[in-house]
Design goal:
heterodimer, A: alpha+beta, three-stranded antiparallel β-sheet, 20% strand, B: 387 residues, alpha/beta, Aspartate Aminotransferase, domain 1, seven-stranded mixed β-sheet, four-stranded antiparallel β-sheet, 14% strand
């Protein structure tokens, strides 16, 4: 059902945990299946200097969270805002169709974290 | 140690026993005759089917003429429910439970669309149906009650003796889906007021794709298909000969070892339950005692079932889950919802179902592996707060 890369990210997820000094925290979730993701970011000079995640959900949810954190570490906030859930799935080499919309929500959590950060720290920011 | 495989999904299906395979093989090779044929080859196969029917009847305490071979539990349930509904002169009322297998529930939904009324009885937190609720639901036009003998997910045994007795007192037909029970616990239709009973061979180390419906003599149903005169016209079509032979052989063998197997599996089951409940925030689903000998169903709080299943699978352990994410439907199991679990607890459920090949070393292996799996997934989960 899952490819090797998904299983690998699920078995050995990167960047798990909380960031106690996070600049922003974003959440996303699927009301339908109950998956919940929480992304913590530390921003330095407009770049994501550090990122961690916590996820409640299936294998796809955990693997896509791990993948996303790897993809955006060191990226500018603008670059990170352009990464979509689909990009994450593609980077994982694909997810089962049913999981695409239900468990692949890590990018949403990240976007929420960034938007919240900008709202607070960039006075001229609009959504 | 890495390649160890522990199969604990016997509620889904069981491996075919060697003796069963051996009994079946001639009918995939030299004994190819059509049992309806008059010639020697045909007659030999007919004799073998008759023998399988006798074995099946003998185990259930039935008459061979009361056994109808089908393609499995789903078809047996369809045949009993639809076949009975179609025999009714006008639309009427059916009583069933909310925790039946889909092979009963979906048929009931269809029958509702055809004009019948169906009462889906609730269950208590252990998954038990209250016979008093059955009695209270009986209407003047109730023609059928269908209650499973044991639940496939949480393993809870149902009071089918009491419910069947009520049905009989009111002159209502009683069907039980006994797919999870036949071959695991003694079932005798002489002791139970049952009019129909569904069973499936692959749940007791027989082949897939074959089952049977026991139908008490004198009870009339309309067949689902039209065709030849096989299975006394109730289930036309050339018989699944190897399957039927396998079913008869598997059931005879399973029935012979029931007393020993029940005790053995119950002991393994209770060891596993005890070990699992030692992990923090784990709850047992189903009834603590009144459950199938090999069924263990627990919920691990704060984590999701599919990710647990996947982790177990990576350790060579096969189990199943009531989690939406593993079912393909996105909805949590209707059974776990019916026993009152909140959505999250239902999503964190795992069923281990034991079979005749499991042993104490398997239990130890699972307990050794599950603890770090749960710990790791909880570390990832935002719902779990560590102090």
């Amino acid at each position: 059902m899952y490819n090797e890369k998904v299983v690998d990210h699920f078995s050995n997820p990167c960047n798990v945990g909380e960031l106690t000094d996070a600049d922003s925290i974003g959440e996303s979730g699927s009301f339908k299946c109950g998956d919940t993701m929480k992304i913590f970011i530390k921003v330095e000079d407009g770049r994501i200097e550090n990122i961690k995640f916590q996820t409640y959900g299936c294998g796809a949810a955990i693997a896509s969270s791990s993948m996303l954190t790897e993809m955006v570490k060191g990226k500018t906030l603008d670059e990170a805002m352009h990464i979509t859930n689909q990009n994450v799935a593609d980077e994982l080499g694909g997810l089962p169709p049913l999981k695409l919309h239900c468990s692949n929500l890590a990018a949403d959590a990240l976007h929420n974290a960034i938007a919240d950060y900008r709202r607070r720290l960039e006075p001229d920011y609009t959504d | 140690m890495k390649n160890r495989l522990v199969y604990m999904d016997n509620g889904a299906t069981t491996p075919v026993r060697e003796e069963v395979l051996e009994a079946m093989l001639p009918f995939l090779q030299d004994q190819y005759g059509n049992p309806s044929s008059l010639h020697t080859q045909g007659r030999e196969v007919r004799r073998a089917i008759d023998e399988a029917r006798e074995k099946t009847a003998c185990v259930l305490g039935a008459d061979p003429a009361e056994i109808f071979f089908t393609s499995g539990g789903t078809e047996s349930n369809n045949l009993a429910l639809r076949g009975t509904a179609r025999k009714q002169a006008s639309a009427g009322h059916i009583i069933t439970s909310g925790i039946e297998h889909h092979a009963v529930l979906e048929v009931c939904h269809d029958l509702e669309n055809e004009g019948h009324r169906v009462t889906y009885l609730p269950v208590d937190r252990f998954g038990r149906i209250d016979p008093a609720a059955v009695e209270a639901a009986i209407a003047p036009d109730t023609f059928l009650i269908s209650i499973m003998a044991a639940n496939n997910e949480v393993g809870t045994l149902q009071p089918i003796l009491e419910i069947g007795t009520l049905a009989r007192e009111h002159g209502i037909l009683f069907h039980t889906d006994a797919v999870q029970v036949v071959g695991q616990r003694p079932v005798n239709v002489n002791d139970l007021p049952i009019d129909y009973l569904s069973l499936s061979a692959h749940k007791f180390n027989g082949p897939k794709g074959v089952g049977a419906l026991y139908k008490r003599k004198g009870v009339k149903i309309t067949p689902l298909y039209r065709g030849g005169s096989q299975e006394r016209k109730l289930r036309p079509g050339t018989e699944n000969v190897p399957g039927i032979i396998g079913l008869g052989q598997a059931l005879e063998l399973a029935a012979a070892e029931i007393p020993y197997k029940m005790e053995y599996l119950t002991s393994l089951r209770d060891q596993l339950i005890e070990g699992l409940l030692k992990i923090e925030d784990v709850i047992l689903n189903g009834h603590p005692q009144e459950r199938l000998p090999g069924n263990i169903n627990v919920s691990f709080k704060y984590i999701e079932g599919e990710s647990i299943l996947l982790s177990l699978d990576l350790q060579g352990i096969a189990a199943s889950s009531g989690s939406a994410c593993s079912s393909g439907s996105l909805e949590p199991s209707h059974v776990l919802s019916a026993i009152g679990l909140d959505q999250q607890t239902a999503h964190g459920s795992i069923r281990f179902s034991l079979g005749r090949y499991n042993n104490e070393a398997d239990i130890e292996y699972v307990l050794e592996k599950i603890t770090p799996i749960v710990e790791k997934l909880r570390q990832i989960s935002p719902l779990h707060k560590t102090d």
